[in-house]
Amino acid sequence: MERRELLKMITLATGGALIGAEFLLSGCKNNARLEGSFSDDDILFLDEVAETILPKTNTPGAKDAQVGKFMTVMVNDCYEAKDQKIFHDGLINLNEASKKKFSSSFMKINAEQRKELLTELDKEAKAYQKTKKESDPNHYFTMMKQLTLFGFFTSKPGATEALRYIAIPGKYEGSVPYKKGDKAWAT
Amino acid sequence: MPDDTNHININSKSIKQNTFDAIVIGSGISGGWAAKELCEHGLKTLVLERGRNVEHIKDYPTATKDPWDFDHRGWITDKFKKSNPLITKAAGFGEDCKHFFIEDKDHPYIQEKPFDWIRGYQVGGKSLTWGRACQRWSDFEFTAPHRYGYGIEWPISYDDIAPWYSHAEKFIGVCGNKDGIESMPDGEYLPPFDFNCVEQHVSESILKNFNRHMVSARWAHLTKPDEIHLQQGRGQCQARNLCMRGCPFGGYFSSVSSTLPWAAKTNNLTIRPHSVVHSIIYDEQKQKAVGVRVIDANTKQATEFFAKIIFVNASALNSNLILLNSISNRFPNGLGNDSGVLGKYICFQNYRGSIGGHIDGFEDKYYYGRNPSEAIVANFRNLHQRDTDFVGGYTIFSAAGRERGNANEQTDAVGKNLKDAMTEPGSWYVYMYMQGETIPKEINHVRLSKDQKDQWGIPLLVTSVGYDDNDDKMVKDFLIESKAMLEKAGVKDLKTYDSKQAPGLDIHEMGGCRMGKDAKTSMLNSFNQLHHCKNVFVTDGACMTSTGNQSPSILYMALTARAANYAVEQLKKNNL
User: Fold this and answer.
1) Which of A173, B19, B225, B458 has its CA 20 to 30 A from that of B576?
2) CA-nearest residue of chain B to A170?
3) By the 8 A CB rule, do B353 and B192 touch?
4) Contact, B49 vs B122, CB < 8 A?
C-alpha cells in the first residue's frame, strides 16, 4: 500500500509514469552501463534546481535535505543507461534554456527567474510526456522533478518537518479527525 | 584390520550422532509448526534448512531503519535488478527486505512455460515475508472440486480441520471479527484492525447493494497479545507496516519469532542451516524411509541423518523435487510414487485482476498509524450452486487510503505553492485485487531435468505450469464485479488491470503431492502420510488437493499440527 501510494503521489505531481520504476511493473531490458559521473558542481547545480522546486519555507527545503546529491546517487545506481544519458544531457539543456531566456547561466539567475524558467520547463515536460510514445525517451525535467519530490519527502528533514513522521505509531486508529492544514503522514 | 575397526567405530558413532526421532525438512511456515508440535511431544527433532540461520531480532538488519537510512530509499539498483529479473518481481521486494530472498543466479530452474518461482532460503523461509492473511477455508472449498467435477475429493472436511485451525490461530495470534459468513468460517480472533472511514463506507455499500461481505482483515498480527504470545516473547503490533524486514516486536507471526524458538525451549530441537536436502533414504528391507541425505550448502559434502519419521516441508515445489529425487528400487519414479501423480496437478492462485479509483469527500477524516492489513471480501461465487461460466471462487482484498499530496491543475509547477500542496493529504483512493482458485490439472506439472544439475549435484526442476480459459473467465468476472461494487459505492476514475503475470508470482504454488482418498490418484492420505511410505509426511503446499480461494498458509499450519499429532500417536502405537 505504501509503495503504491508513493508512486502515485509522484506520478500525479509530475504528470507521467515514474522513471526507473518499471521494475515494479515488468521485467528488465538489458542495457550497457553508461560511464557517467557527476562533479561537485553538478551536485550544486542540482541542489539549486531542487530548491527551486521545493524551497525552504517555514520548513526545510530541498537543499537542507541534500537532494542534489541524492539525485546523483539514484541516477548512477538506479537509472538505466538510456535514462542516465538523458539526465546528464538535461543538466546542459537546462542551462542552455536559462541562457536563451535570461542570457545567463542557471546558477547566476535569481530565484524568481529560476522559478519562471522551471515553470516553463515543467509545462514543456508535461506536454511532452503526455503525447510521447512509450518507447520515446523521457523528458529530463520530469526526471529531476520526480527525484526531487521523492528524495525530499523520504529525507529526514522532508519526512519529519515538512510532513509528519512517526517511526513507531504503537497502534492503528482507523478514523481520526483531519482539519485543513494538518500535514500528511510521511509513511 | 585395525583400520577397518576404527572406520566402523567412527561410522556407528556418527550414525548415532546423526540420529533423531524426527527430521523436518524446511524451517518455513509449516516446517516451524512441525518442529513445534514434535518437540513439544518430546521427540528429538532435527530441522534441516538449506539457507543461513536467522535469529529473531538479531538478524533483522533493517528492521528499525528510517526511510532516509537507505541509500536508495528502498529502491533496487539497476545492476541488482538486471542480474535478478526474477526475484525483484516479488511483491514488496525492496532494498529493505531483499536479504530475505534468494538471488536468481544461485538457484536456477527451467521454465518450460513462464513461471516465477519466488524463494526465500533462510531459517524461517518465506514466513518472514509472507502476506499474513489467515482466513479459514469453508466446506464449499473442500467439496467444490468434486461437486463441480474439476478435481478429486479431499480426504478431509472442514470439521476435521476446524479444531486444528483453532489450535494454530490461538498460538500465532490472528486478528479479526467473527462475521458469521458462510463462505469464510470464523476462527479464534484477537481484536480487528479498524476500518477507516472510506473502507467502512465501501463495506456498508457492498452489503446493502450486493449482499456481499467486506470484513476486517483476518491477519496474523498481535493487536492485543494473549498470555501465550507474551510467553513466546512477542508483543503488540506497533502498526509500523514494515513486516517484511522482520518485526523486532514480534508483532506478526513467523517461524523465527514464534514456533522455532518455542520448539527450542523444549531442548529437543536441533536446527541445521546450510543443509540442502538431496533425497530421502528408503530402506528396502525395513520398507520405510530411514533418513535424509544432505549436501552441505558451503562445503558440498554429503552427510546422512536418520530418524523414525520425516516431515517434508521444503516449500511446495522443493518438496516435490526432493520426493522426485528420492529414488530406490522400490520407488524408481520418486518416493511413494506408485500412482505416477507426483509432480502433477500443480496449481497456484490467480492474482491477475486489480482495480483502483478515487472517491470524493471524507476530507475531514484521516487515520493514525499504518495498517499492515487489508479488508477481505468473502467469496460469493459458485457456493451453493454453480452460478458462473467458470468454476472456483475468488477472495478479494481491498483497502482505502489518502494520497500524500494535494496538488492539482491550479497548483504552481514549482515553489512554495507546490511544496505546501505536496505536504497535505490528498483525496481518498480505494483498490481491490483478486485471489482466485485455479484448477488442478495433470498437464500443469514439475519434473526433474534429465541432464542439468545445480551446484549441489541435484537435478534442476522443470516447471510446466500455465493458465487456462477458466482463469481468464474468472479475471473477467472479478473486473466486472469489483467495478460494479466500487462504482455503486461512489468510487470514480476506476481503472482495471489484468497484469497477466506468470503463475508463481502469486507465491501460492501448491500441489504435486496431493492428498486424496484413493492411492491410485493421490500421494497422501488424510493425515498427510505418503500412502506407500507411511513414516513420511508432506504438510506444506505440495499436499494440496485443490487451491481454494482463501490464503493457504494457516491451512498448512493446521494440517501440519494435525499430522504431527497423528504421527506422535502412531509412533507410540509402534505403527511407524
Assistant:
1) B458
2) B238
3) no
4) yes
d(CA B561, CA B568): 11
B371 touches chain A (CB under 8 A): yes
HSE at residue B254, side-chain half, CA atoms within 13 A, is 28
Q: B238 vs A169: CB contact, 8 Å cut-off? A: yes
Distance separating the N- and C-terminal Cα atoms of chain A: 10
Nearest partner of B554 among B281, B175, B277, B211, judged by Cα: B175
Residue B276 cell numbers, joined: 540442502
Mutate to test the interface with A, among B64, B65, B68 (most CBs of A within 10 A): B68
Provide the number of CB pairs (under 8 Å) joining chain A to chain B.
Answer: 202
Enumerate the residues of chain B whose CB falls inside 8 A of the CB of residue A3.
74, 92, 94
Q: Distance between CA atoms of B367 and A17, rounded to whole angstroms? A: 28
Tell me the residue length of chain A: 187
**Residue of B78, B197, B405 with shortest CB distance to A80:** B78
Per-residue confidence in pLDDT tens, chain B, 576 aa: 344 444 444 567 778 899 999 999 999 999 999 999 999 999 999 999 999 999 999 999 999 999 999 999 999 999 999 999 999 999 999 999 999 999 999 999 999 999 999 999 999 999 999 999 999 999 999 999 999 999 999 999 999 999 999 999 999 999 999 999 999 999 999 999 999 999 999 999 999 999 999 999 999 999 999 999 999 999 999 999 999 999 999 999 999 999 999 999 999 999 999 999 999 999 999 999 999 999 999 999 999 999 999 999 999 999 999 999 999 999 999 999 999 999 999 999 999 999 999 999 999 999 999 999 999 999 999 999 999 999 999 999 999 999 999 999 899 999 999 999 999 999 999 999 999 999 999 999 999 999 999 999 999 999 999 999 999 999 999 999 999 999 999 999 999 999 999 999 999 999 999 999 999 999 999 999 999 999 999 999 999 999 999 999 999 999 999 999 999 999 999 999
CA-based end-to-end distance of chain B: 38
Q: For residue B407, which of A1, A127, A15, A116 has the smallest C-alpha distance?
A: A15
Minimum-distance CB partner of B424 among A8, A151, A184:
A184
Chain A closest CA to B94's CA: distance in Å? 10
Residue ranges of domains in chain A: 2-22+39-153
CB spacing of B81 vs A28 below 8 angstroms? yes
Instruction: Dig out the grid coordinates for A10 from the structure.
Output: 509522484
Which residue, chain included where needed, has cell 502469486?
B506
Q: Among partner residues A54, A122, A172, which is closest to B371 by beta-carbon distance?
A: A172
Measured between CA atoms, how close is A168 to chain B, in angstroms? Answer: 6
Does B42 reach chain A within 8 Å, measured CB to CB?
A: no
Is pTM, for the whole model, over 0.90?
Answer: yes
**Dist. CA A132–CA A13, nearest whole Å:** 18
Which is nearest to B253 in space by CA: B269, B237, B271, B272?
A: B237
Asked whether the beta carbons of A48 and A106 are under 8 A apart, the reply is yes
| Nearest residue, CB atoms, A122 vs list B88, B238, B414 | B414
- Suggest the residue from B419, B420, B433 to mutate for an interface test with chain A (most A CBs closer than 10 A): B419
Please give the Cα distance from B320 to B508 (Å, whole number).
Answer: 15
Residue B436: its H or E element: strand B425-436
Q: Cβ contact (<8 Å) for A2 and B370?
A: yes
The residue whose grid cell reads 507546490 is: B418
Q: Does residue B114 belong to the interface with chain A, where contact is any CB pair within 8 Å?
A: no
CA B25 and chain centroid, separation = 16
A contact residues 41-60, partner B, Cβ 8 Å cutoff: 52-55, 57, 59
| Residues A63/A51, Cβ–Cβ less than 8 Å | yes
Q: What share of chain A is helix, strand, coil (3-state, %, to 5)?
A: 55, 5, 40
